[in-house]
Amino acid sequence: MNIESAETVVTSPGRNFVTLRLVTADGVTGLGDATLNGRELAVASYLRDHVAPLLIGRDARNIEDTWQYLYRGAYWRRGPVTMAAIAAVDTALWDIKAKAAGMPLYQLLGGASRRGALAYGHASGRDVPELLDSVRAHLADGYRAIRVQTGIPGLDSVYGVASSAAGSGERYDYEPARRVTGGPVLPVEETWDTRAYLRHVPSVFEAVREEFGPELPLLHDGHHRMTPIQAAKLGKSLEPYDLFWLEDATPGEDQAALRLIRQHTTTPLAIGEVFNSVHDYTTLLAERLIDYVRSAVTHTGGVTAMKKLLDMAAVYGIRSGMHGPTDISPVGMAAQLHLGLAVHNFGIQEYMRHSPDSLEVFRTSYTFEDGLLHPSDTPGLGVELDLDAAGSFPYEPAYLPVNRLADGTVHDW
Ligand code: GCO
Ligand code: MG
């Protein structure tokens, strides 16, 4: 079962995706997602120039050995580019193994622990009435847990908030990497004010609870913008509204910051979408400073590494909340649905629908019904890549926005 070809496919059906496509000598194809939003070509080069040549002729069955070979063997460990590339190889090898076994991947990971993976959708509005409409639309769409983001009085635009009237199923890509229109390819710049944000957010959750009652799980993303003491204050002020989690309250690289937040609030905490290794979590897990692990299979070294991370989290009673906006491709999403179905400590799965163009390139078989995602029983990951369709959407340079304070200082986000 040797690998015969390793092709890196870059396609942009509305936003950029990087996919690794492995084919074995006996004709089994495996797919892996290596999309790193706004830095896609760095991973494509890492795969094409440094990894693909090492894969040809390797035994596709030896997943753990290949992982260690690419991780330990490279000397330069970790980092988002390296770990996304390793993730793609690892995921593609699991796809191949499961197809060869004639089983959906979740069966190889231990079988189903639940009927499906509870998903949360992204509701947002520039103001509260628009937000309430968006929550309603998500409920009508079948979501049973909702992330809530709003515009902030005094700020022109806020990342994570749709820029036009709210909706749900039809809003595929309101957080893509973008570029300023006209002129050179540069990131959009946004202005941020944490004090205005902290004053506004509690009233938003009060309005949502008043309208939809106490039962609906509500989530919120702080996008790494607060200092520890500001985050502690926000967590405390949101306690009456019983959040499912407060995500990414502080910049991700400072694990100790979570200690301070934890001392002040019982609002559950989630972090990790920008992490790429179990080593980013050691303090957070051992000291139980978080409640949910936000890493994605795509950015954390694949199914192998993510499974180990979640097993380690399980020791401390910490659950999964894998990152799932549309910059995780349908391949990455399918991989984490298989994993989420199998592990005991699944928590919740972020889920934004991909656009019709994306779903033309990536033919998925996972389902979303009554709030639950299921990876399907198709052997492997259950996703096929249509190479012709992929070829008709060429790469488009784009960046995530840059965040600045009113005086021009570059700020975390
Ligand atoms: C989320 C995230 C995303 C990221 C995006 C960056 O919680 O889904 O914060 O929206 O901003 O993945 O590429
Ligand atoms: Mg987030």
From TrEMBL:
This is Starvation-sensing protein RspA. It comes from the Bacteria. Gene3D superfamilies: Enolase-like C-terminal domain (3.20.20.120), Enolase-like, N-terminal domain (3.30.390.10). The lineage of its organism: Bacteria, Bacillati, Actinomycetota, Actinomycetes, Kitasatosporales. Residues 128-268 form the Mandelate racemase/muconate lactonizing enzyme C-terminal domain. InterPro entries: D-mannonate_dehydratase-like, DgoD-like, Enolase-like_C_sf, Enolase-like_N, Enolase_C-like, Mandel_Rmase/mucon_lact_enz_CS, Mandelate_racemase_C, Mandelate_racemase_N_dom. It comes from Streptomyces daqingensis. Signal peptide: none annotated.
